[in-house]
Amino acid sequence: MENVFVDSKDIEYFAPDMKFVRFKAEVNQGNVKGTVANIRVQNADIETGDETRLIGDFNIKGLPNINKTIFDFSGRTIADLLLKILKN
User: Fold this and answer.
1) Angle at the Cα of 65 (from 21 to 86), degrees rounded to 5?
2) pLDDT band at residue 84 under the 50/70/90 scheme
3) According to the model, what pLDDT value does residue 39 have?
4) Omega of the bond prior to 16 within 30 degrees of 0, cis?
5) How distant, in Å, are the alpha carbons of 34, 42 from that of 81?
6) Residue 20: what are its φ and ψ, rounded to 5°?
7) pLDDT at 80 > cutoff 60
8) Which of 24, 37, 67, 71 has its CA 20 to 30 A from that of 83?
9) Cα torsion at 27, 31, 32, 34 (round to 10°)?
10) What CA–CA distance (Å, rounded) separates 51 from 5?
11) Per-residue pLDDT at 78 exceeds 80
């Protein structure tokens, strides 16, 4: 996937509990595999806002239940987005 825009409202369609988390992201690149319940992304380069960027690999397991979802990041850079998700 390259040059894709993601709004959290798009994710909310598959995971209704995401209605409490709001963000917009630009996906510069990333190889995405799996299902909503088990997403695997390699070589990601994702930007949200002006100061948040994730570069690396990650897994998201447990959606659509956001309260039991595990975010496993193996990357070089992460900031405000993860803090926003964890607060909710």
Assistant:
1) 40
2) low
3) 93
4) no
5) 22, 18
6) -90, -10
7) no
8) 37
9) -170
10) 17
11) no
Q: Which two tokens stand for residue 31?
A: 């190889």
**Strand ordering across the sheet containing 38-48:** 2-7, 24-35, 38-48, 52-61, 70-77
Number of Cβ within 10 Å of residue 81's Cβ equals 19
Please state the length of the chain.
88
Among the residue ranges 22-26, 29-33, 50-54, the one predicted with the least confidence is 50-54
CB 61 within 8 A of CB 41: no
Q: SS3 string of 3-62?
A: EEEEEHHHHHCCCHHHHHCCCEEEEEEEEEEEECCEEEEEEEEEEECCCEEEEEEEEEEC
Specify whether the backbone of 41 is left (phi greater than 0), alpha (psi in -120 to 50) or beta: beta
Which tokens belong to 87? 């607060």
